[in-house]
Amino acid sequence: MDSVRSPEWPVAPLGGLAANSATARYGSPTGAPPPGGRAAPPPYRPSDVPDAAPEPRVGAVPAAAPPIPVKILIAGGFGVGKTTTVGAISDIAPLTTEAEMTSAGLGVDDAGVRSAKTTTTVAMDFGCVTIDRSLKLYLFGTPGQSRFGFMWDDLARGALGALVVVDSARLDDCYPAIDFFERAGLPFVIGVNAFDGRLAHDLGAIRWALAIGDHVPLVQFDARERLSVRDALLVVLDRALDRATREKGA
C-alpha cells in the first residue's frame, strides 16, 4: 500500500522568516525582532490599576482620630433611676437585663411608695454617648440590690468615674454605693434624681445627711431628660479630669 506523505512545507532560509509566519502574511512589524527569536510582548498592566499611589496634596487635612473611650459607672440603690438615666442619653438602644419582679422580692426590694416599678436590673445596663469628636462615653449601670454586689468590682474595673444616683426620699439606699467608691478611690459625683420634678430635701441637707465632703460634687438632675443627664455626666468628667491633673502634677 502506498504510504501517505506529509506535504512539503517550504524551508525557511537560515536566519530568515518562515513563509507561513504572521510577518509574511500581514506585513513587516514596526520594530525588528531581536536576533534568534521573536520580540517579547510588553508587560501586562490592567487599565484599572494606577501606576503608583497618588502623592498627598500639600495642606491636606489628615484623617480624624477615633474618639477616646471613657468608661463611666451609673450606680446607686434600688429603684433610684439608673436604668432610666442610661436610656435617656444613650445614642444606641441600651442593653438592659431587666427581669420581672416577683412576690419573692416583697419586703426585700423596696422601690418606694412613689415608684410603679415592675422590673429590676439583675446584671447591668449598658449604653454609650458621643460627647464630641474626641470623646465617647460608655455607660455601665450597676444592679441596685445588695445580693448583686459581687458584680461591682468587675464593673468598676477600668472606670474613670461614677455618677451615684440618689432618691432624696430614700437616702439610706445610696450609702453602700458611696462607701464602695470611697474605698475604691474612684472619683464620683452625687446626682439627686428629682422625682416628679421636686426634692424631698434641699441639697445642703442631703450633703449633711450623706456626710460627704465639699470636694464631692452634688447636683440635681432629672433622669428622664437627656440634657439634664448630659450635664450631670459632664460634672463626672470634670471631676475625673481634675483628679488626673492633680495626680500627674504630684
Can you tell me the CATH architecture? Answer: 3-Layer(aba) Sandwich
Q: In the CATH hierarchy, what is the superfamily?
A: P-loop containing nucleotide triphosphate hydrolases
CATH class type:
Alpha Beta
Strand percentage, roughly?
15-25%
How many strand units? 8
Overall 3D shape? globular
Q: Strand order, biggest sheet?
A: 4-5-1-6-7-8
Describe the structure.
The chain is of the alpha/beta class. It has a single domain, classed as Rossmann fold (3-Layer(aba) Sandwich), CATH 3.40.50.300. It has six helices and eight strands; from the N terminus they run H-E-H-E-E-E-E-H-E-H-E-H-E-H. The strands form two sheets. It has a six-stranded mixed sheet, with helices on both faces. A two-stranded antiparallel ribbon has the order 2-3. The radius of gyration is 38 Å and the shape is globular.
Short structural description:
The chain is an alpha/beta fold and 250 residues long. It has a single domain (68-249), classed as P-loop containing nucleotide triphosphate hydrolases (Rossmann fold, 3-Layer(aba) Sandwich). It is 24% helix and 19% strand.
Characteristics of this structure?
6 helices, six-stranded mixed beta sheet, alpha/beta, globular, 250 residues, Rossmann fold, 24% helix
